[in-house]
Amino acid sequence: MTYPSRVKLVDVGPRDGLQNEKQPVPAAVKIELVERLQAAGLRHIEVTSYVSPKWVPQMADNAEVMHGLKRRSDVVYSVLTPNVKGLEACLSAPREEWPQEIVVFGSATEAFSQKNINCSIAESIERFAPVVQMAREQGIHVRGAMSCTVGCPYEGEVAPEKVGHLARLMKDIGVQHVGVADTIGVGTPGKVRAAFEATLAHYGLDEVSGHFHDTYGQALSNTLAALEMGVWQFDTSVAGLGGCPYAKGATGNVATEDVVYLLHGLGIHTGIDLDALIDAGVFVSQALGREPNSRVSKAIRTKRCA
Ligand SMILES: CC(C)(COP(=O)([O-])OP(=O)([O-])OC[C@H]1O[C@@H](n2cnc3c(N)ncnc32)[C@H](O)[C@@H]1OP(=O)([O-])[O-])[C@@H](O)C(=O)NCCC(=O)NCCSC(=O)C[C@@](C)(O)CC(=O)[O-]
């Protein structure tokens, strides 16, 4: 089996990982988390989202976090912007605090679209179109997240045709890259492959990524299945943090630590220092009062103690 020679990981821990936390997480902790991730070698970090603070209170400090970061010139910072209001809020900061990439997020199912962003799929595309245009005019890269590509908490199994339909709509409005998300972590390799195949009818292999939650413990298998298709970009979350507020019961994303261990084991270079990454996961987990949700982190920390 041949695997891609390079893999890009986007650590979504500061955004996807923390958005669902009920306890307030101070901006200083979020900032230190991003800085620890970049020090560990992560070069793509999803920092925050410009969404309604009534819907997701944890992300209300978006501007403070973007302002407080000590940025590195070799790191790409991204943020979620569901509508023009969100993008305008993000761009109201001085240019040096802008992200290089924004994310619009849609759903392959109508029910999740309504629950998550309060509109139909068609309406979401209408909302995204001016966001995409404005961002691209400013030289900001646009990624699209496609939720519920294999399963939906409200509609159950999702047909690949629905994924292909959303991918085409995203392509038509100029979204440059799409992430195939298993929002509730129910996917298995065959289903994930089918979701990618439907997406690859509209996007090239260099324009797609995988985003796997680990609710059923399948995220590493799904990552491997995607790697075997030639997919080389993945979202992961330090310490396995996360969950979407509108996908009840779904656990966090696959832990970055576990994916890095897998990749290094396959001989794929990531540039990530696994020990420093584990320490970043311990830092944020301690701030949240829990253990990191990563088997690799646990194993390596046990070995360190021995
Ligand atoms: C999309 C909206 C805003 C629509 O929400 P809405 O209520 O339909 O919007 P609206 O335009 O009618 O505005 C209602 C209120 O929200 C305000 N508002 C409107 N837009 C913004 C904004 N951008 N920033 C700040 N405030 C905003 C607006 O000003 C107004 O305030 P009010 O007059 O009531 O005081 C809302 O549904 C929302 O914020 N949803 C949040 C959804 C979210 O963040 N979900 C989690 C992220 S997605 C995810 O995790 C999945 C992913 C990406 O990881 C992939 C996967 O695993 O599937």
UniProtKB/TrEMBL annotation:
GO term, biological process aspect, one: ketone body biosynthetic process
Family matches, as SUPFAM superfamilies: Aldolase (SSF51569)
PROSITE patterns xref list: HMG_COA_LYASE (PS01062), PYR_CT (PS50991)
Record-linked NCBIfam families: PRK05692.1
Alphabetical keyword list: Lyase, Metal-binding
Catalyzed reaction equations: (3S)-3-hydroxy-3-methylglutaryl-CoA = acetoacetate + acetyl-CoA
Domain of life: Bacteria
PANTHER family: HYDROXYMETHYLGLUTARYL-COA LYASE
Pyruvate carboxyltransferase domain: residues covered: 7-278
Enzyme Commission numbers on file: 4.1.3.4
Annotated protein name in UniProt: hydroxymethylglutaryl-CoA lyase
